[in-house]
Amino acid sequence: MAEHNLAIIGGDGIGPEVIDEGKKVLDYLAANTPGLTFNYTEFPWGSAYYRETGRMMPEDGLDQVSANEAILFGAVGDPDIPDHITLQGLLLPMRRAYDQGVCVRPAYLHPGVTSPLAGKSAGGIDLVIFRENTEGEYAPVGGRLYPGTPHETVMQTNVFTRRGTERIIRAAFEYCVRRNRRMKVTSVTKSNAQAFGMVFWDEVFQVVAADYPQVETESLLVDRVAMDLVRWPEDFDVMVASNLFADIISDIAAVVTGSMGLAPSANINPEREYPSMFEPVHGAAFDITGKGIANPLATISAVAMMLDHLGEAESSRKVDAAVVRSLQERKVMTPDLGGTATTSQVGDEVVRLLWE
Ligand code: GGG
């Protein structure tokens, strides 16, 4: 039990709407748990800030945030600003600067939630994706020559370091052993086509796997995994993939487990030298921004992951249990899950279930 300093970045679109519900849960926990305090510092950065200043965050933004223990992040993206500017201006620099190389994205089909996959029973899908989060295909390495001419030449370089690759693969194995469910780790690459970085990834996977003989392993190509996630998602346990591939397969996993509005994400700095960051997997969702109908459960589940990271295991467990019950009871659901409730009503319901 302690005092925790948190950076809050609602960001764009529905980000601030869902972050309000995450804070609502934290506020109720603090008010009802002796000795537990959360101090928030709000950073009003994102696309609105960009319109005013030409930057997604101030020049010294990374320094301003770094003193906090963790970051609760909403979403980034704007219909009028190119996506590479919004993403490269706020979210990706934080993941890199704070060395958040281990991204954890669980996907679980909750009782009470219907998968769009016919015939899938509740509870059948329970997998966790480990995403390499600071390099790979998202490395800001490349260049553009002779723009607008017939000789235009563009290079985008994938970066795989031994440290980053081994770190994410080992994190996946360690988690698999702790979780002790199917005891299987699936590595996802495209090493038949990408003969440098992804062949290297396969080699590192083999080396790390040798330290965990009790864990079953498989190495699959990403196109096969895309099919299998919609055919047999219940076959997967722990999955590990590069930045881009894990981003894509975690969206598929979110959808087959009922809604993008349920999928949380943790961007972890394993060495705890810098703050880790917790966010919903979903983006800014312009189509529903301002309507008050965004599902806040992904953010609230991200809050549970943050509490666990902060050493508040009991509070984390309570939040998870309240989310599970709200989905089981199906009384207060947003439209993505077939209900008519508002974002705020779902947050209120989670808070009610926390103390029931
Ligand atoms: N809350 C996550 C978010 O804003 N996602 C927008 C996005 O495009 N993310 C890409 C990524 O997570 O790498």
TrEMBL record:
Keywords: Manganese, Metal-binding, NAD, Oxidoreductase, Tricarboxylic acid cycle. It holds the Pfam family Iso_dh. This is Probable tartrate dehydrogenase/decarboxylase TtuC. Residues 5-350 form the Isopropylmalate dehydrogenase-like domain. PROSITE patterns: IDH_IMDH. InterPro entries: ICDH/IPMDH, IsoCit/isopropylmalate_DH_CS, IsoPropMal-DH-like_dom. GO terms for biological process: tricarboxylic acid cycle. Its cofactor is Mg(2+); Mn(2+). It comes from the Eukaryota. The keyword Oxidoreductase applies. Coiled coil: none annotated. Belongs to the isocitrate and isopropylmalate dehydrogenases family. One of its GO terms (molecular function) is oxidoreductase activity, acting on the CH-OH group of donors, NAD or NADP as acceptor.
